[in-house]
Amino acid sequence: MGTTSLSELTYQTARQQLRPEKIASLYLIHGEERFFVNKLLNWFLENAIDPASSDFNYNRFVAGTATVSEILYAAKAVPMTGGKKLVVIEDADQMKDPEGQLLDYIASPVSMTTVILVATKPDMRTKLFIALKKQAVVIHCRPPYENELPVLIQQEGKQMGITFSMDA
Fold first, then answer.
1. What is the pLDDT of residues 14-65, one digit of tens each?
2. Predicted pLDDT of residue 52
3. Taking a C-beta distance cutoff of 8 angstroms, is the pair 25, 111 a contact?
């Protein structure tokens, strides 16, 4: 998964395609299904950086609480102990970027950092999300349809080492 003009992935497709050796520099994870969003964030925390260095190489921000300058400082900083950095921006749909600094970063992200913007209901017509659609891997975490639930429950159980029959 590169960083040029990608289509939107579903949670299920993203989980099938994500590989630790092919982690992109930019992701937009959006949607109302917080269970799926959290599963993806946990996957990135386990696979995008060395867990032993997460105290140094993992930053989590909440848009509106942190400034764009603080976020970009973390994204551009050299990772401690080598490896890569992970920067997560929650509530990205609330982000204010009047000087366009974040847009500049999106156009040319730092390769040693993975930046994940998380939004519940982004307005995909704004400059920020238009740029992300062009440059980032976009993952939509929508609530599952009722007919998808049995398979999802089986998959989640399998990941935990539990087997369910379709009747269960």
1. 998 999 999 999 999 999 999 999 999 999 999 999 888 888 899 999 998 9
2. 82
3. yes
- pLDDT given for residue 151 in this prediction: 66
| 102: enclosing H helix or E strand | helix 101-107
Per DSSP (E only), the strands in 58-146 are 58-62, 85-90, 113-119, 137-140
Return the percentage of the chain with pLDDT > 90, whole number. 67
Q: How far, in Å, CA of 116 to CA of 71, rounded?
A: 11
Q: DSSP 3-state assignment of 116? A: strand
Strands in 1-148 per DSSP E: 9-10, 26-30, 58-62, 85-90, 113-119, 137-140
- CB-count burial class (<10 Å; 0-12, 13-18, 19+) for 65: exposed
Coil, helix or strand at residue 147: helix
User: Distance between CA 139 and CA 32 in Å, rounded?
Assistant: 12
Residue 130 — very low, low, confident or very high, per pLDDT cuts 50/70/90?
very high
Residue type, 28: L
136/114 Cα distance (integer angstroms): 10
